[in-house]
Specification:
Number of helices: 16
CATH architecture of the largest domain: 2-Layer Sandwich
Distance between the termini: 174 Å
Strand content: 15-25%
Shape: elongated
CATH topology of the largest domain: Beta-Lactamase
Largest sheet: 6 strands, antiparallel
Oligomer: single chain
CATH superfamily of the largest domain: PAS domain
Structural class: alpha+beta
Length: 522
């Protein structure tokens, strides 16, 4: 047993404490280094991954990433940054952990890089090195990454079906896409450096895409290209699109519009077409003649409201009761025309009458048709007056008269017919056929064989000879009927009284048949 003097106790305890502190510090350092997985030499490109995230990296490792380094960034970003160089790098962290330990070699030609993946507990330590070296140039990795991205861009542009090319500040073509090279071969010799398009750079900058024509052997003898430009530093990139079909369609459309304009010019109906913005886009000469509106005003493409304001001020439409109602009417008129439901008859102060129709057109446009119907209305009014006069004249006749149409329905009767048979077919909605009329007549007459003759005479629209005979009413009146064919297949039947002095009315009973003989004059 060793004995320690009492006076040396403080020194012994101090030594023991110092040794303990040093041991704990060394243990924690070793344990921390083991958990981190990154050695004391942090000059290489080393990453530490756990649970699908990069939790630590060396300074050079941060430089090797294209994006700004973020703490705890994901495995997807790491995979995107290195998969182009190491195609066998698993896209999922779990698969990479199953694959480790492994050394992946670069898939790029001439690249001797190696990606070492090692397992440290739940973590992966990933080291990027160069062959025969413990280190890898981070800048080289960025250069290779940019080169790969540029290669992908060039391949994408080269596969474009559109002509693409790049010019420097002096206008020299420094790069040509395959389609642009093919297009140059069609129009220019191989050694000819003449520009294919005479580009106006100032207009391209200010106006945007411009169209250029190239002569060819097609049916129209030309092809059209729309060229756009983008500037990057001292270089200009140009992109051309073949718009020949679009140019032809636009020409066909203009030709169609011109044809329509010539066709509309021959119409006697005024036409005004407004686009979806409610501006006048098309009109014909008849509109000027009907509305007396100036061609200069119409050519200025007035709005719908301005157009009808002009009509109102020129008294070429009915005057509204107040201005606010007039504005509401114009708006309602536009919406009604969109639905194809607008139709009005305008009676103007100058005695003219216009029928105005609104019709919808494609793409939200509306068309208004102005038709002068003054002559038609005048003719209709005169025809109605003549009908009224003729009907009044028929009412003055003492004989009962009924006119049947070719279909066998009553067209008209006079007042004597109403007085004789007690009904007025002119006031009934449903047409009255021959059978119904004869049923009404026979109820007020004695039985007779004449009804069969009347039915035959009124049904034979092709007959040109008249039929006549006698019937007797229940009141004792003897009537003579005459069936006369008229024009257009119409037939008239007239009932005349043969009794000069009407006999007293008798009761309409069954025994009243003895009051009159039922003889007929064939």
């Amino acid at each position: 047993m060793y004995l320690i003097e009492t006076q040396n106790y403080p020194l012994v305890f101090a030594a023991i404490a110092a040794v303990s502190i040093l041991f704990i510090a060394l243990y924690r350092a070793r344990h921390s280094q083991k958990n981190r997985g990154i050695g004391p030499d942090s000059s290489g490109i080393v990453y530490l991954a756990e649970n699908g995230h990069i939790i630590d990296e060396t300074p050079l490792a941060r430089v090797a990433m294209t994006a700004d380094p973020k703490p705890n960034w994901g495995w997807d970003g790491f995979h995107d940054a290195f998969a182009f160089r190491f195609p066998k790098l698993p896209p999922r962290f779990a698969d990479c952990r199953k694959l480790a330990p492994v050394d992946l070699v670069s898939g790029l030609d001439g690249d001797s890089a190696r990606l070492s993946i090692r397992v440290f507990g739940p973590r992966l330590k990933i080291t990027l090195t160069q062959a025969n070296s413990d280190r890898c140039n981070a800048r080289l990795h960025l250069v290779l990454q940019d080169h790969k991205a540029l290669t992908n861009i060039v391949e994408s542009i080269s596969g474009s079906p559109f002509p693409v090319w790049i010019q420097d500040e002096q206008g020299t073509e420094v790069w040509r896409g395959p389609e642009y090279s093919r297009l140059r071969g069609v129009y220019l010799d191989q050694d000819d450096e003449t520009p294919l398009f005479e580009l106006d750079l100032d207009r391209l900058r200010t106006e945007g895409p411009l169209r250029y024509m190239l002569p060819d052997q097609s049916e129209l003898g030309e092809s059209w290209y729309e060229v756009s430009m983008s500037e990057n530093g001292g270089f200009c990139s140009f992109y051309a699109t073949n718009v020949t079909a679009l140019v032809r369609a636009e020409r066909a459309q203009r030709g169609f519009v011109q044809t329509l304009t010539k066709t509309f010019a021959q119409l006697g109906t005024g036409l005004a077409i407004f686009d979806r913005e409610r501006q006048l886009v098309l009109f014909n000469p008849a509109l000027i003649e009907l509305t007396q509106i100036s061609a200069e005003f119409l050519s200025a493409r007035p709005t719908l409201s301005a157009f009808f304001d002009w009509l109102r001020e020129s008294r070429m439409m009915p005057e509204p009761r107040n201005y606010s109602e007039w504005r509401d009417k114009v708006n309602a008129l536009s919406h009604a025309a969109e639905n194809g439901t607008f139709s009005e008859l305008w009676s103007l102060p100058n005695g003219l009458s216009y029928r105005v129709l609104g019709r919808p057109h494609p793409d939200g446009a509306v068309a208004f048709l102005f038709e002068d119907v003054t002559a038609q209305l005048s003719l209709t009014r005169n025809f109605v007056k003549e009908l009224e006069i003729n009907h009044a004249l028929l009412d003055t006749l003492p004989d009962a008269l009924a006119i049947f149409s070719p279909n066998g329905d009553i067209l008209s009767v006079n007042q004597a017919y109403t007085d004789l048979w007690g009904e007025n077919p002119n006031t009934q909605v449903a047409p009255i056929p021959v059978s119904a009329a004869i049923k009404t007549w026979s109820k007020k007459c004695l039985a007779s064989d004449a009804w069969a003759q009347i039915i035959e005479g009124l049904s034979n629209v092709t007959s040109t000879t008249g039929i006549s005979g006698n019937i007797c009413t229940l009141t004792g009146h003897k009537l003579t009927y005459r069936i006369t064919p008229l024009t257009k297949g119409a037939i008239a039947i007239r009932f005349s009284s043969t009794t000069t002095t009407p006999s007293p009315k008798i009761s309409l009973k069954s025994n009243a048949q003895s009051a009159c003989s039922a003889s007929l004059d064939a």
